[in-house]
Amino acid sequence: MRKKDQDDIKAFCWLWDFAGQKDFYATHQVFMSKCAVYLLVTDSLKFSTAEKPGVNFEDSAQYVRFWFDVIHCYWSTRVKGRLDPPIIVVCTNEDKFKEPLERQKRQKEFKDNLRQVLKEQKKKLHLRNIYFVSNTEDADVVFEEIRIEISRHAMNMQDWGKDCPFKWLLFQQVLLKMKDSDVPISSTETLLKIAKFEDIGFSKDDDVKQCLQYCHDIGTVVYFDGDKIGDPVILDPKWLVNAFRCLVSDKIENVIKVSDDWQKLTETGELTYSLICRLFMKEPKLKCLENKTHLIEVTTYAMDVAG
After folding, report:
1. Is 300 strand, coil or helix?
2. Do 135 and 211 have their domain in common?
3. Residues 211, 195: contact at Cβ < 8 Å?
4. Residue 17: closest CA among 44, 1, 36, 2
């Protein structure tokens, strides 16, 4: 293939904005992928080297350390002396420093503090670059530079440009059509039957599961193949996000807050089955109750992994 042809190839990408509230952190690993470039956005004004026990997410240094730990623990592959997936740190609020010398001083402090946070730890090998930006004052060229940086690191990852069977592409199209037809979740058993239709051409269950795992890795579905969870396949990850939001939210009706189930949750941390059902009823359009068995399995898995 000529270089010009390679440059003309287009690739789809999905952008995920992880919720910043710490209440959602236990669910993040469900959506994380090894086939990703991570932008770690932090407020450089709040960054410090505070060494406090536990995790204090109000402190930016702890925030940065936490996300490096999460990415490093869940997905970490050594490539040419570096670790994938790549992490690009983006520092905001640069417009707060009006004087150039003051801005340079603050940037140096940030890099010195970041070095201390990552000192003598393997997770620092995920770091690719640091950008200091102002969302209100910087020109588009600054953000274009970050976009190019993301593309460059994405194309250097092992899974970029990886060939896959044509029937995988056909199956992905079927999954997307199911999602667009308001089918947010399906069972592995159902999808195994669909994949073996003559128009698609799968013959072995293991090949279908390998394709589903590939779709999970690139972010189009949420799928787990293992002893703990292997049946539900989330065809619309955004739907799962909204379902989690029913459980992790400060918008709880007063009638629920005075229930015995809520009291048990606040006193013992136990989330009862009946309370889960009542919380899912907050968003009837999501049809969570119809899929509550699968949703509970996925939620339990997320909490178990979060530990």
Report:
1. helix
2. no
3. yes
4. 36
Which pLDDT value is given to residue 175?
94
Task: Specify whether the CB–CB gap between 128 and 90 falls below 8 A.
Answer: no
Q: Kindly report the length of the chain.
A: 307
- Calculate the CA dihedral of residues 263, 264, 268, 274 and round it to 10 degrees: -130
Residue recorded with tokens 């993040």: 28
User: Are 179 and 263 contained in the same domain?
Assistant: yes
Q: Are residues 197 and 220 in the same domain?
A: yes
Q: Provide long-range contacts, Cβ within 8 A and 24+ apart, for 62-65.
A: 64/40, 64/89, 64/114, 64/117, 65/117, 65/118
Look at residues 222, 283, 213, 221 and name the one whose alpha carbon lies nearest to residue 247: 283
Confidence of residue 230 (pLDDT cuts 50, 70, 90): low
Which residue range forms the structural domain that includes residue 201? Answer: 164-302
Question: What DSSP assignment string belongs to 234-281?
Answer: ES-HHHHHHHHHHHS-S---HHHHTSHHHHHHHHH----HHHHHHHHT
Among 109, 132, 155, residue at a domain's last position: 155
Tokens found for residue 179: 């999602």
Q: Is the pLDDT of residue 88 over 90?
A: yes
Cis omega (within 30 of 0) for bond into 237: no
Half-sphere exposure of 238 (CA within 13 A, CB side): 9
pLDDT tens, residue by residue, 133-163 = 988 888 889 999 999 999 999 888 877 777 7
Other beta carbons within 10 angstroms of residue 148's beta carbon come to 10
Contacts of 12 (CB under 8 A, 6+ apart): none
